[in-house]
Recover the amino acids of this structure.
DNA sequence: GGCGGGAATGTAATCGTATACTTCTGGCGC
DNA sequence: GCGCCAGAAGTATACGATTACATTCCCGCC
């Protein structure tokens, strides 16, 4: 038995209080809130007045417990730090808010174990659906999701062969397109500065896409031309510095993110490397700042806002038992700006291919 | 009466199931979860095994309803779009996660009514505490918070005269310091590009701080020298363009954010305005990119990460009934880099003050 | 040997709401 | 005038956990 005594004056206002005040039953008040059309107009008016007068705020926990609906959707993203996911989150939150849903946000720092834990925590909190990033997760995560039968969706990826619903784009193709573009311009010494590929299928796919696109053209990608670093501006700078200490520096560099590309441009200015004359640079994301860099950054534009909206739509449709596409492929665009052009001295490239001694 | 029939096989696993499986009462299982030291080691082991075997996940709604603790803290911020608040959110989420709390995130787009609604929604969801941005909110918001007796804290501001707890810095002083610095360098034609000041006491305070600092030095700030625009790079560019169409363009410009300053630098490069020779530029925030701009941006460094951590600490301490400072003032630094120097032609400034005709 | 007391566990009330089922009312058709 | 039905409101249970209080058991001490 629980005989706690609470000061009645400071007690939370409940449905019961509203019902008493409006002189009706709790069921009627509940109906007035959740399906007003079932309640007579005058009674409804009385109830509304009582709610205002008492300052009643429904108790979400009780509501969630009884109805099994929390009106909360969870998102598990790698990090907010790099602002890469800011646009996704922003549009997700907006779209959910339109339908009265709130967003519970969680990060895992590219650690699959933490991702699993955080997802479990979200389920504990009673989220009705979950938005994830990427297609490769801990095995336990899939079991968990299957067990709870909550709708979920992977974003930032598109893979119709996957067992899991996804909304995004094909990272391989997107990166491959950028690689082919550089090759078409005439570049043959192409370097890659990628974000961490460990536990990150998006970055890994982009790298793979570049590699295979170049191989199709008969070019291979030596390990000296691939540098992997977290998405920080200073890492882009450092990577460029390393590349320009090579006996044969690249004539073009593909970056795994605009942030890394920013660092590259910054360091080029520092070292006196002229872009795009001496070096072509391509970014990835098309963040706000990309078009305002000097020269303006050629980059791959991704549908961050659409992904957020579509992910919310997908979850909401599933929750309302409406049909929803499990696989949504969104457009990616190669946005050509000022940091790319054909390599300065196409003729000098021959030297490498045909040594004098041959 | 509620006679819903659910397939028992697919029913959610509850405490009851665990108790049955471990052959003990629900009370014991609950204790094993919440205060393990009260449960005998062997029983605890049995329970742990049962939890694993059944894949039990606690129901947060039930827990919250009974214990009045949701383990959720809410944050109401203006927007995530400009990435200005990303660092705050990141560190807030991290710190909360350390104590097993989750973050419910909400935005209001500088609309006080939406801010109020969103806060009410958070309270409905049962958040235990609330983190806000700024010190000026709708009156109804304060009533709401008072009524619910939930700990809350204003961030990004420091005002010991306020009735509300806050963690941040003095925006007036911070901006005034930057203004004095420019004056000390010898600048007399100083312009301001501010973010929206409507419903935004931080920006308004910064502008006021600049104005009064200049007035102290006998300089006034004509309205032609103040441009107000949302925090977008293109707006910084546009503002600079406008300023340089004036008959007497400024020799220095103070920006309400690094984002605006970014735009200014970008446009200067476009127009051939040399920074810092022709124009000194000061930003605000010290975002990641500031030090990597060319020239590196002189700016006001704010304690975004600390604010997140301290806000979380404050709420957590309040929830645990531990003493907590209601007013925390964090350090702000003027970070001098490459975009500021004395005005090019100090001598020419005299012309203005002493016309030939006098 | 009886009894006090503490540790471990069990029993059952309770949190605030949604909702299945019941009851009541009045209108309508025959 | 009677029965039927629809619409509106009421009654009371269940959601799944926490926790106050009751119970049991075992030990040690007088």
């Amino acid at each position: 038995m629980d005989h706690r005594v609470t000061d009645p004056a400071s007690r939370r206002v409940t449905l019961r209080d509203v019902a008493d005040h409006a002189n009706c039953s709790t069921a009627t008040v509940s109906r007035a809130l959740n399906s007003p059309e079932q309640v007579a107009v005058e009674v409804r008016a009385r109830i509304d007045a009582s709610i205002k007068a008492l300052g009643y705020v429904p108790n979400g926990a009780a509501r969630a417990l009884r109805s099994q609906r929390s009106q909360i959707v969870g998102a598990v993203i790698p990090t907010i730090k790099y602002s890469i996911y800011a646009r996704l989150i922003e549009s997700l939150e907006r779209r959910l808010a339109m339908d009265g849903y709130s967003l519970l946000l969680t990060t895992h720092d590219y650690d699959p174990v933490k991702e699993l834990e955080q997802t479990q925590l979200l389920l504990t909190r009673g989220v009705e659906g979950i938005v994830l990033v990427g297609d490769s997760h801990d095995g336990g995560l899939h079991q968990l999701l299957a067990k709870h039968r909550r709708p979920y969706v992977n974003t930032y990826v598109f893979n119709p062969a996957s067992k899991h619903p996804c909304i995004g784009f094909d990272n391989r193709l997107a990166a491959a397109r950028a690689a082919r573009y550089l090759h078409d311009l005439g570049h043959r010494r192409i370097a890659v500065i990628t974000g961490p590929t460990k536990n990150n299928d998006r970055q890994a796919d982009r790298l793979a896409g570049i590699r295979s696109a170049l191989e199709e053209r008969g070019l291979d990608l030596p390990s000296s031309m691939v540098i992997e670093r977290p998405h920080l501006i200073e890492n882009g700078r450092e990577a460029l510095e390393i590349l320009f200490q090579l006996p044969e520096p690249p004539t073009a560099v593909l970056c795994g993110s605009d942030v890394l590309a920013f660092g590259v441009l910054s360091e080029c200015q520092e070292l006196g490397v002229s872009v795009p004359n001496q070096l072509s640079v391509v970014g990835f994301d098309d963040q706000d700042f990309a078009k305002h860099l000097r020269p303006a950054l050629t980059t791959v534009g991704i549908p961050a806002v659409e992904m957020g909206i579509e992910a919310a739509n997908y979850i909401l449709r599933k929750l309302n038992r409406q049909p929803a596409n499990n696989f949504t492929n969104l457009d990616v665009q190669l946005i050509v700006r000022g940091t790319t052009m054909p390599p300065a001295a196409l003729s000098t490239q021959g030297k490498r291919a045909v040594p004098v001694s041959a």
